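Good morning C.,

I know you're traveling, so I'll keep this short. The sequence:
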Amino acid sequence: MSMESTQITSLQNPRIKNVVKLNKRSVRDEQGVLLVEGYRELRRALENGWKPVELFYCRDLFLGGNENALIEQGRAAGAEIYDCSEPVLRKISYRDRPEGLVAVGPQVRHKLGDIVFRAVPFVVVAESIEKPGNLGTILRSADAAGVDALIVCDRCTDISNPNVVRASIGTLFSVKVVEASTEEAMAWLRERKIRTVAASPHAEQMYTDADFTTGVAVVVGSEQYGLSSRWMTEADVKVRIPMLGQADSLNVASATTILLYEVVRQRS
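The tokens, ready to paste straight into the viewer:
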């Protein structure tokens, strides 16, 4: 390392105790922070301008040779750097196989007014998504498909949940994520003449037959109940993804990915 790091070997260290507490949503919200663990996640966060407050590392757990450069990047972004013993790093890790890097920093907060369209508007609206893994995977697909923003309505899952960060592989920091009520989101989309496309197994139109070349918001709902009647009633277009086997629906993240790439296909 190019500069000194504070060493921590005690599990009773107050900083370590605080990081452990951050596994609770109430504590994260109270402190306004989130946890980023893992090389790819931290690299993407830093590349997108996230400024960690604390960065904990343990060399014995590193998987590659690029971690030191990442630690220096964290230091340059203003983080306090802590060199931890393996038991200490394992204590603050929420993974079965820690990669030796855990950072604490500000939660990501955006408003509808922060959304900037790169070309023809392309938005995802996710209503009442219950599982952090699904929300993270939707983020990953949104990033890959070049979506302008993800609007989370009536959230069931905490956006700052470590498992959202993990499942998104850090794309939580590359996609604008906005929390809004259904009312706010609908009004905002209408104002900008962005058509809403709702997926339903009961829709008549196949998703490949809908026109996605104009401004579009792909609206997806909870794993258990699908979209609320409000979104289904108000949607400009309803489409279905064919189900040819015995299952009557797809996982919400899988369905979202299929729809997003249909938008990409039509626009390219």
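Safe travels,
E.
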